[in-house]
Amino acid sequence: MGVWLGWRMALLAGLLVWWRLRFHPSANARFWRRQAVAQRRTAGVLAQLEQEGWLVLHDVALPGWSASLDHLVIGPTGAWAIDSWRDSWLPRRRKATSLRSARGVIGGRRADLSWKTEAVADSLAGTGIPVQRLLCLHVGIRLPGRRSVQGIPLVSLRRLPDVVRHGSRVQAIEVQRASARALEVLRPAA
What we know:
There is one protein chain. The chain is of the alpha+beta class. It is built from 5 helices and 9 strands, in the order H-H-E-E-E-E-E-H-E-E-E-H-H-E. The strands form 2 sheets. Strands 7-8-6-3-2-1-9 form a 7-stranded mixed beta sheet, sandwiched between helices. Strands 4-5 form a two-stranded antiparallel ribbon. Strand 7 and strand 8 form a beta hairpin. The longest helix has 25 residues, at 27-51. The radius of gyration is 22 Å and the shape is elongated.
């Protein structure tokens, strides 16, 4: 009875493991799914600008880097490098652990939009167009008093098109040069 029962128990254990793996994706897979949903929502909102004649690129591969930029928007107010974020990904203030860090430190996911913006600016060099950066926040409730993360402005998904439209104006020739250069140099990551 030992071999007979052992064989059935092994089969049952294998089925349970398969069931668990099949219907419960890993934390990493869940994170990337949520990220993809956030990017699609941002793309849907940016479609308004695209209909108005703005150049809108999604999931832009950065030359020389393995990472990609979520969205690049080029129009009358310049170029905008936009990353989609959920508030659960925002760095939180941790309690100080020593007298040296009495003011608290920022912990959590690092905002890497700064170097992505520099990579886009390098790609658009010679066009004379400024590249600005924005973090698009996807959960409606913003942390009290928080207007930026590591110096990068935060904007809600609902207000994103208005913020981009109301930036400082640039010359039309610069927009044309930057759009042509972006289409020439920057490609989708996928």
